């Protein structure tokens, strides 16, 4: 099916582009589905599960991140015991000031 795109106006051209992009998406989804079916058939034929091959966390929800949780503090400000730092991220001012004053990291450790 050959389409003479030079004879199309702007609206018809935009419609053609939109239909072509939709078709591309359909083809990509079909290809992914076929590949998934092949992988599952191969795994079944070998007698192993997806988790056996790729691990328990594989194949989960995309974009799902593991929670980092709360990290216990490693350092405490001797001048204000309320101020603590886990040792991760940017150093707090009190930590840098204590180091400049001659303290060592181990002196500030909890």
From TrEMBL:
It is found in: Cytoplasm, Nucleoid. Residues 62-110 form the DNA-binding protein H-NS-like C-terminal domain. Gene3D superfamilies: Histone-like protein H-NS, C-terminal domain. SMART domains: HNS. Its main location: cytoplasm. Residues 65-92 are annotated as: Disordered. Keywords: Coiled coil, Cytoplasm, DNA-binding. Residues 10-37 form a coiled coil. InterPro entries: H-NS_C_dom, H-NS_C_dom_sf. It comes from the Bacteria. Belongs to the histone-like protein H-NS family. This is H-NS histone family protein. It comes from Dyella humi. The lineage of its organism: Bacteria, Pseudomonadati, Pseudomonadota, Gammaproteobacteria, Lysobacterales.
């Amino acid at each position: 099916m050959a389409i003479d795109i030079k004879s199309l106006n702007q609206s018809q051209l935009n419609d053609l582009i939109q239909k072509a992009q939709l078709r591309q998406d359909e083809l990509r989804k079909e290809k992914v589905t076929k590949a998934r079916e092949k992988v599952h058939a191969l795994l079944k034929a070998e007698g192993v599960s997806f988790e056996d091959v790729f691990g328990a966390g594989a194949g989960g929800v995309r974009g799902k991140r593991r929670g980092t949780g709360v990290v216990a503090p490693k350092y405490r400000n001797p001048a204000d015991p309320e101020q603590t730092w886990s040792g991760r991220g940017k150093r707090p001012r009190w930590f840098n000031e204590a180091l400049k004053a001659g303290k060592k990291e181990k002196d500030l450790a909890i």
